C-alpha cells in the first residue's frame, strides 16, 4: 500500500505532526545572542533560622554551629564556651543570576539549597547573605522568608515526598549593591552570535538587517557570527538593536529525527525525506500448552499408574503483519500516517526508524538519547 492514502491515519497513535502557521516566524532576538550582553552568576553562603526542628544536627554539620556562633558574636552576643545545639538552624548555599545592565537598588530572585543534613527549609528565614561573583567581589546581598514547594511527610512505617523540601527560593530576595561597568553605547561594532549556527540562517539575517536599514552594515563572518559595523550610523548601538531585533527571519532547520528511549518520544523534523523502501511490521508468537493425561489400571488388576504428556504447540503472528511500500521522496506526514496505519507503538516506530536509517532510506540526522 502507498503512504499517500494513509495521511488520515494520523490520529491512531500519539505521534503526530503540527503544521506551523504560515505567518509565524521567529524574530532576530529569538535566535541570536548579543556578544557581551550576558547574565552573571552569583553565589553566597548563609544560614537559615526559624525552622521547626528540621535544621542541621551539630554532629553531622559542625559548620552550622560555627556559623551561628560567628553571626551572634558580630551582633554583640557572647557565646564563647557555650554548647549551642539548635535544631532550627540550617547552613545553605544561596545562588542568583545578575542580569545584564542591572542597577543599584534593583532586586533579583535567589535560590536557597541546604548543604547539611536538614530535613526541610519550610518556614525558615534567610539571614543577610553576601552574594559574590567569579571575581570574589560582592554584588548583592540576600535576605528574606524562604518559599518551599517540596513536601516531606513522615509517619510510622510510611513516608511521602513531593519535590525537594531542602530547596527553596526567596522572590526578590537580593538587592544589587554593585553594578558591572559596561559602556555598551560606546561600541563601534556589535557581534550577533547565532544560538544554532547555520549558513542559510546567518545569510538571511544579514540580508534582513541590511534591507531594513537601507545600507550594508551587517556582515556574515561565519555560520554562527554576524558583525554589525556601526561607524556609518548616527544612531547609538542600543537604538540600532532596538530597530532590528524584532525583524522576522525564516530559520533553516536541519533534517533531524530525535528518539528519546526513556520516554518513548519521537520528534521528526519537517525536512525529513524518505527513499523508496518496504516496511514489514509484525512478530511471530509461539504458544505451548500442556494437558497431561493420567492412565491407571482397571480395578482388581495389576499395573502402575502412568502420566502421559500431551503437548500442543501453536504458532501465530502478533501485530498487523502488513507490508508497506514507500514511494520516492515521501513527506513527513505520509511517513507518520503510514506507520500509524500499521498499528505500531512508539517503541516499535523507533525500531523501524533506526532500521530505515541503517538501510539508508532516511535522509536525516538520527539522534538517539
UniProtKB/TrEMBL annotation:
UniProt key word Calcium: no
GO CC aspect terms: bacterial-type flagellum basal body, distal rod, P ring; outer membrane-bounded periplasmic space
GO molecular function annotations of the record: structural molecule activity
Keyword terms of this UniProt record: Bacterial flagellum, Cell projection, Cilium, Flagellum, Periplasm, Signal
Pfam families named in the record: FlgI
Matching InterPro entries: Flag_FlgI
Keyword Signal (UniProt): yes
Location of the protein in the cell: Bacterial flagellum basal body
Signal peptide extent: 1-24
Subunit structure as annotated in this protein's UniProt entry: The basal body constitutes a major portion of the flagellar organelle and consists of four rings (L,P,S, and M) mounted on a central rod.
Family per similarity comment: Belongs to the FlgI family.
Name of this chain's protein: Flagellar P-ring protein
Gene expressing this chain: flgI
